[in-house]
Amino acid sequence: MSELIDPVKLDRLAQVAVNVGLNLQPGQDLILTGSVDSLPLVRKIAEHAYKAGAGQVVPILSDDQITLARFRHARDDSFDVASGWLFDGMAAAYDKGAARLAVVGGDPMLLSNEDPTKVARANKAMAMAYTPARERITRFATNWTLVAWPDRAWAQLVFPDLDADAAQSALAEAIFAASRVNDADAVANWAAHNARLSERAAWLDGQNFAALHFTGPGTDLTVGLADGHKWLAGATETHRHRLQPEHPDRGRFTTPHALKVGGACGRVQTPSHQGHADRGNRRALSKAARSPRLARKPGRMCCARCSIPMRARRLGEVALVPHRLADLRPPGLLFYNTLFDENVASHIALGQCYATCFHGGDKLSAIIKAKAATAARSISTG
What we know:
Elements: H1 7-22, E1 30-35, H2 39-51, E2 57-62, H3 64-73, H4 84-95, E3 99-104, H5 116-129, H6 131-138, E4 144-148, H7 152-158, H8 164-178, H9 186-207, E5 211-216, E6 219-225, E7 232-233, E8 236-237, E9 242-243, E10 252-254, E11 256-266, E12 272-273, E13 276-277, E14 282-285, E15 292-294, H10 300-305, E16 315-320, H11 338-341, E17 347-350, H12 366-380
Parallel strand pairs: 1-2, 1-3, 3-4
Antiparallel strand pairs: 5-6, 6-11, 7-10, 8-9, 10-16, 11-14, 12-13, 14-15, 16-17
Helix pairs in contact: 1-2, 1-9, 4-6, 7-8
């Protein structure tokens, strides 16, 4: 770890992750994932978890060099399978009350020089194997949260004009500011922020909007909202505890209607996906939200994305974010990380929605879910 990373703020970040993000309860186990590079933060989180009365902290670590070794030397058929046994175990742990904390922030371009087809196949296999654990997360069956570590490779991508130490220090400070841990009483800071978010989400809920219309450079997009949709923001109630899913968190989000999305959306940023920079700046969406497609010639990454299941190409989230950015990042800074960059502007996201974004979503019956799946299949083949 760079000696220029403020140890006091790093400790506050860990404290906020445990006490605000997770709201970890006495006796509750914690599944803690992160990279080997993020060990300074992982260790601090474990320390605060045990101070909060955690039963057992179970760390699961990844390593960039091992990941690259797989893509360069593993058997070809290995990219179509994933360790389902691990995620089955995680799902079982959640059912027994374990919390989940992910330390994110690896090299966004780690796989940029690897075969995009293998990357897509591996991600597809991972997504399928992760289903049991992800299902518990998306319906907030347990408390979970995300927090970021300033990985050196990530830092040098964000701050290319600085040396490695200075870049990591600069990224750490940006993360601390966005995560609201610069103040001595970071926990109180988050409480006040959550109160503001909840007030605005309640106002949106009361309006019961049928659709949102976005306009701007390259954008003229109508996003219909699902019947019975509910707006969420900030701290969220789970079946067990109140939690703060993300740090930072500035948006209010809900669920679009799969059949009522149409138009085109543009952007001025260049996010990364599966290790590649996605430079297409305009997407057209069909009225059935069948799939997003580039209005310009797609690159390798966009072609690889088409291998994901058809239903996963629909919008699963729409979020409104205020224009004021001073509390999140310096003007013009691009994080190349969804956790941070999605909190800069109102946005849409592909994939599975959250059951909690429906009024009574926790009581959705298996029959309703089966009808929804049937409808999705008919749309994808229409």
